[in-house]
Amino acid sequence: MVATFMGNYPHSQPAHWFDEEIRDVLGLDLLAEPFDPEVGYATYAIGASSVLVLQVELPDERKETVLRDFLQAPSLRLERSNVGSEKRYANVYQRFRAGIEFDTEFWTRSTDRATPGTFTRRTSWRASGRAGGCAGPAAGVP
Fold it and tell me: What local confidence, expressed as pLDDT, does residue 115 receive?
């Protein structure tokens, strides 16, 4: 399963997404902007607007605080959704995560623009820890 993913998935897709959806639409080249992966988030001004970049690896409590401040929405709460460990394929997903490692070579192959650690703390990343999922706004955003 890991070999199929490594061999067949279009790994440069995330970097191209930043170019096509952020740089080309908003005029902000996030991959060329400074980002401190130890802080885990940054805001960038575009005229009268701002863009927030937030590491998915941040604890949900920290994400909530950053989003509250950024959106000026003090009652905002995050709720986990799309959690892989709660899906019918959870056991397959867990085995996949346990068997995959993203090293510097992977990041180099994945993009010609982003470097390992652009938005993450690690140049080698083992897919462990929380069993996946996304935290999204649940309440308090006008």
Answer: 54
- Cβ neighbours of residue 23 closer than 8 Å, sequence gap 6 or more: 29, 30, 31
Contact between 133 and 85 (Cβ < 8 Å): yes
Question: What count of other Cβ atoms lies within 10 Å of the Cβ of residue 18?
Answer: 21
Q: How far is it, in rounded angstroms, from Cα 116 to Cα 90?
A: 28
CB atoms near residue 49 (< 10 Å):
9
**Sequence-separated (6 or more) residues with CB below 8 Å from residue 17:** none
Q: State the CB neighbour count (10 A cutoff) for residue 130.
A: 14
Other CB atoms within 10 A of residue 129 CB? 8
pLDDT for the residue 68:
97
Q: Provide the 10 A C-beta neighbour count for residue 67.
A: 21
Yes or no: say if 77 and 136 are a contact pair by the CB < 8 Å rule: no
Q: Which residue has the higher pLDDT, 78 or 112?
A: 78
- Mean pLDDT within 88-96: 88
